[in-house]
Design the sequence.
């Protein structure tokens, strides 16, 4: 059974940093494109960043460019999202998904984990 587990979310002050992890069990993560998505209360899930097989990287929202970096460690079967200079509008539940398309559309991904909560507040 394909399963992803997200971790690393926390309460952090504006300007702070967090590193989220997305670890796979039951399959080899490098065989898939892996995307990070987030969902704020009352809003739809949106794409944040995606890393493809062979480390072809695509970053989503303009609001995260220059602040968020996606990477993968195939030895640990894990994809990371390094988030710097966090803002209150980055608050939400962050999910990772595995997909066959290099995309930022949630509909192109599956095997969602339970998500990890990120709260940016003073």
Sequence:
């Amino acid at each position: 059974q394909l399963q992803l587990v997200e971790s690393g979310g926390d309460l952090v002050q504006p300007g702070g940093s967090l590193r989220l992890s997305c670890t796979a069990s039951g399959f080899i993560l490098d065989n898939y494109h892996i995307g990070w998505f987030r969902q704020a209360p009352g809003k739809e899930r949106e794409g944040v960043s995606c890393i493809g097989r062979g480390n072809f990287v695509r970053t989503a929202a303009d609001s995260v460019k220059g602040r968020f970096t996606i990477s993968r460690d195939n030895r640990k079967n894990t994809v990371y999202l390094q988030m710097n200079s966090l803002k209150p509008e980055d608050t939400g539940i962050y999910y990772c998904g595995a997909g066959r398309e290099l995309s930022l559309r949630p509909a192109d991904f599956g095997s969602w984990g339970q998500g990890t909560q990120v709260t940016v507040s003073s």
Notes: The two ends are 40 Å apart (CA to CA).
